[in-house]
Structures are given as C-alpha cells and as structure tokens.
C-alpha cells in the first residue's frame, strides 16, 4: 500500500483535515483544508511532500474555509465537491461571520465531482461517491487499495451528520450511508470529519442511527 494519510486538526471545530500522499512519488492532496493553513503547510514541508491538488468533501466553513488561500499559496487546483454544493460554497463569507471564522471568499472549484468519478494522488486512484443529506453536494473519497474512505460529515463513530441545516435531508443521508457506504468492506477504515476513526463494519453493527439491526 503506497497511499498514506495523516490528520491535521484545524479550526476551533477540530476538523480532521487529511493530508494523503502516494509514498512512491511523494505527491499529495489535502482534503478539507478548513483553516490553519500554516499548520498544514508545516506538515507538508516537514514530510517533503509535493501537493498537487486540494479535495473538498463539502462546503461548510470548517472544511472549506481555508481551501482557496491554501490552493493559491501552493499554485494548485481544487477538486470537489459535487456541484449542488455551490449553495454552501457561495455562502462562505456569511458562514465565517456566523461562526467567528476568518473571512473566506465564495469558492468555485476548478473541477466539480460526480458519482463514479475518480481523483488521483500520485499513482493512487480514489473513487468518488456522492453522499447527500448532510449537505446536498457532499462527496466521499474511497481508496480500495488502502482500504480507507474519507467521509467528511456523513458518518462518525457512533453517529451521523446533522441534517438540520438548510438543504439537509435526513432520509437522503440514511440512504447514502446504508446504500453506498455500507456496501464497502466491513474492515474498511472510515476517516470522519471530526473525532476518531472507525470501520464500516463497526458502524453497521453498533451505530444507533444506521446499524443493520435498526433496519432489520
């Protein structure tokens, strides 16, 4: 396995910004650069990585607030989320005001992602799943080679994403988790947007919101 991952917690929300890289080429991507870009850059330099792109799971301020500034600093493009997420990315300035974050300008990625697309990191390839519900254009990145998925705020250890924000949809979220994420291998590692890692199988067994026993 040549895909490596390290979480760099960012923002007062302790969002799990993930730096992923191909160990063969030392080429990297930063997933959900919500803020604290100096911390992210320090990690990249310490490990002698070449960032070739930024990836976004969704447009909430703690996941996307630092993305444009980091992309500009590195001279790279942003890929994702799915285009319905323009609803949230257009509102980054007001989100920052609401939560006391540094100002972020509205953001349009260079590449919108759709279900079935792939993204590359060096020699590694990750599949894209569109998993709406928490937000309308939320995407998940899946590495079958490394047996891990970066799920943003779709699924957490023992919990699921909130759906009480504008454009949230509880049933869509449940359907995305059970129909798409739970189709992945039980031993696949889940990297959530906040909190500890878990596995698909553990959440199928014990998550009170989406466990198999709840749905028969």
Automatic annotation (TrEMBL):
Question: Metallo-beta-lactamase domain location, by residue?
Answer: 14-194
A Pfam short name: Lactamase_B
One term of GO molecular function:
hydrolase activity
Provide this UniProt record's keywords sorted from A to Z: Hydrolase, Metal-binding, Zinc
Superkingdom is Bacteria
Instruction: List cofactor names only.
Output: Zn(2+)
The record's Gene3D superfamilies line, in alphabetical order, gives: Ribonuclease Z/Hydroxyacylglutathione hydrolase-like
Checking PANTHER family in the record gives:
HYDROXYACYLGLUTATHIONE HYDROLASE GLOC
Query: What name does UniProt use for this protein?
Result: MBL fold hydrolase
């Amino acid at each position: 396995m040549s895909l490596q991952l390290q979480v760099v917690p960012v923002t007062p929300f302790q969002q799990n910004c993930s730096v992923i890289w191909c160990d063969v080429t030392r080429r990297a991507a930063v997933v959900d650069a919500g803020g604290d870009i100096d911390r992210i850059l320090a990690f990249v330099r310490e490990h002698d990585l070449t960032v070739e792109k930024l990836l976004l799971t969704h447009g909430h301020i703690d996941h996307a607030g630092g993305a444009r500034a980091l992309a500009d600093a590195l001279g790279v493009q942003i890929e994702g989320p799915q285009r319905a997420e323009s609803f949230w990315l257009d509102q980054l300035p007001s989100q920052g005001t609401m939560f006391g974050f540094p100002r972020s300008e509205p953001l349009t990625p260079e590449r919108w992602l759709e279900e079935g697309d792939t993204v590359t990191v060096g020699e590694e390839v990750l599949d894209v799943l569109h998993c709406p519900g928490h937000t309308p254009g939320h995407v998940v990145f899946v590495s079958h080679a490394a047996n891990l998925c970066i799920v943003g705020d779709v699924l957490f250890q023992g919990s699921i994403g909130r759906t009480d924000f504008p454009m949230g949809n509880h049933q869509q979220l449940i359907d995305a988790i059970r129909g798409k994420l739970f189709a992945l291998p039980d031993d696949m590692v889940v990297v959530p947007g906040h909190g500890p890692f878990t596995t698909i199988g553990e959440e199928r067994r014990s998550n009170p919101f989406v466990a198999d026993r709840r749905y028969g």
